[in-house]
Please model this.
Amino acid sequence: MNMYSCIQKRFFFLLLVQLGFGQTNKEIKKLEELIISAKEQNISIKNQTLQTDLAALTKKTAKGNILNPRIPSTAQVINNFNQQVSFLPGPIFGQPEGTFKAVTMGQQYVSTFSIQPQIDVVNPGTIALLKSATLNEELIKEQNKWNEQTVYNQINNLYFNILLLKKQQQILEENKKTAEQIVTINQNKFKEGLLRKQELNEAESNLIAIDDKLIQLELTLKIQMETLQTYYNQKDVFLLKEDLDHYAKEISLLESKNNIKTKISELQYESTVQDVKVAQWSQLPILTLISSFNWQNQSNITYFDPNSNWVNYNYIGLKLSWDFPTTIQKISTIYAKKIQAEQLKNNAEQAAKENDLMNKQWVLEYEKAIQQFRSLEKIYVLKKDTFEKNKNQYDEQILPLDKLLISHNDLINSELNLASALATIGYTKYRIIIYNN
Model:
């Protein structure tokens, strides 16, 4: 039985080692470190990079299609096993007048190789497509930049939520010690018969409430940390080491200069205007340089007859082709694109206004957080002074317990609110910084 117990313990030990293998803790001292890691590891950002590469490839393809070089090549072998018969006048072959002789014309076995290089000298449609591909590449880059900044801002939000939760834990742990001291004092008084049970209950309830808040904070912190890890393709566990108090020392006003949404709307409008040109120019004539190089072997004996001479015939020239814009669909496409362009023009104007409003709003929210922090800092100093004085009066048995507990909870709330204001300062500050880059 002892041997079985020993084996069991070793098994569980090895299991724990396996589960923890490869997982390390990575210290994070500032938000910038998380953003750099996200740029390298985040799947969404990697996919956006691939999308940008795809847009660049489309542009390169459009460049090549301006000349549209092509070399159609064919090789064919033909067996004219039942050839056409012609009737020629008999006298040609020494026969009497009025007679005809049946003659089979042509060769039975014909082998041909053909190469026909072609290149567009002037193709308005492909020229317009190059400009369209260039605008599309710029649009994709701006959209991906906005999406990338959105990912960074989501990480920014999680980062300061986690710092706030850790700070709240620290505040509650410190105040829990005070609550424990109050419980101990009241327990001693109750044992000496100097205190009613109701007052002891209030002191213990206050301590239980703080413990419950700590438990809830721990669970919320775990959820936030797991959510943060989903933005990274790694097993490392992040340990955030920055203290929120750092943001009380570095308060400076910022200007929001983000204009990506305006750029995106403008590029969408320009792309649609270019689509109109593509639809129009694609209906113009195309001038093509054409050529043909052919080699043919003819024989009545076999394919590729070595005793038969190869016949070579070639040409080079220009071809003007024009598909007349007579279909309703082609004409309808142009008008539909013009309507879309007008809609996107209106959207671009509205986006510029909204972008400007967003920048002003972000700056105001940052300034509001700073002002709120300064007010809450003053309130915290007053609440702390009130509690210290009330604690002294309670120790001197001048102040009742309920008054002390009220002032203690007021102190806790003021300190929690102060921490929340610091987190808001950090988040709103870095939101501006992220979208400015």
